[in-house]
Amino acid sequence: MLWKFALDLDVGVSGEVLEGIIWVNLTMGCCMSKRSAANSRSAARWRSTGIVGLRDSNLKHFPSEVLELERAVRTLDMTHNKLVEIPLEIGSLANLQRLIVSENLLERLPITLGKLQSLKVLALDDNRLTTLPDELGLLVRLERLSVSSNSLISLPETIGSLRNLMQLNVSSNHLKFLPESIGSCFSLEELLANGNSIEDLPLSLCRLANLKSLSLSNNHISQLPQNLLSDCTSLQSILLHENPISMEQFQQMVGYQEFESRRKRKFDKQIDSNILMNSKGLDEGLDL
């Protein structure tokens, strides 16, 4: 292109300069050829394994090469990039099971996310999300959802449609409440909502019979649903540090003794298995 430009302007080009121009163009062509070959090899590997790993790639835009793979992709990890959006075309990855886009600059999610009917893991931590789309409730196979360290002020009521959800992490957001529909997430085993502004908990939490761990530290909770300990018969751990609730209140709840027995059995099992504990030892879950 540089050579043609010089000739079009009828500019005299010496043999030495012309040789340099040709060398530059050949070098650029060689680099483009190498890059194209590398992209082709990556695409072939992604298609073969179903795993697309693009962590720490300084990406500002979602690669079109990934979208072109469509049903071949099962895992997509784009952690620690500079993505500001996920394109609508993400819905074409119909067999995607794990989508990890943590540590980016996402402000919103596309409504086509609901088309990912095979999705089991969705990690969107450390972004700039203020809302989650109602279409999230269409991800009926979802087992793990992590959206910590965003700017969420609420969760969609449709989250109650996630009947296979086992782990939900909404810590470090701006939530003032959890939706009543969360009581319909019957498979939920772990709920992490530390570092929010939650004042009251929905009574529907008492329906979560499979819930084992409930983390609510650094909120504004002054009381728990009265039947939480008696109805959540799998509950073994509650973290309530930095909340305006006393140990006396907690101990007076219905089902406290049963909960305490489950908690001790859990730690006894860990000790018997030689599992190392952190510096807090047997954390009571409340500030005493």
Structure description:
The protein has 288 residues and is an alpha/beta fold. The chain folds into 2 domains: 49-128, Alpha-Beta Horseshoe (Leucine-rich repeat, LRR (right-handed beta-alpha superhelix)), CATH 3.80.10.10; 140-276 and 284-288, Alpha-Beta Horseshoe (Leucine-rich repeat, LRR (right-handed beta-alpha superhelix)). It has 6 helices and 9 strands; from the N terminus they run ααβαβββββββαβαα. β1 (51-53), α3 (64-67) and β2 form a beta-alpha-beta unit. It is elongated, with a radius of gyration of 26 Å.
Draw up the topology in text:
Blueprint: H1 2-8, H2 15-49, E1 51-53, H3 64-67, E2 75-77, E3 98-100, E4 121-123, E5 144-146, E6 167-169, E7 190-192, E8 213-215, H4 228-231, E9 237-239, H5 247-251, H6 256-272
Parallel strand pairs: 1-2, 2-3, 3-4, 4-5, 5-6, 6-7, 7-8, 8-9
CATH 4th-level superfamily of the largest domain: Ribonuclease Inhibitor
Mean pLDDT across residues: 86
N-end to C-end Cα span: 75 Å
CATH topology assignment of the largest domain: Leucine-rich repeat, LRR (right-handed beta-alpha superhelix)
Rough shape? elongated
What letter string, H or E per element, gives the SSE order?
A: HHEHEEEEEEEHEHH
Low-confidence stretches: 1-13
* Number of DSSP E strands: 9
What is the count of structural domains?
A: 2
**The biggest beta sheet, please?**
9 strands, parallel
Strand order of the largest sheet: 1-2-3-4-5-6-7-8-9
Q: Which CATH class of the largest domain is shown?
A: Alpha Beta
Radius of gyration: 26 Å
Question: What is the beta-strand fraction?
Answer: 5-15%
Name the structural class. alpha/beta
**CATH architecture descriptor text of the largest domain:** Alpha-Beta Horseshoe
Residue share in helices? 25-40%
Q: List the total number of helices.
A: 6
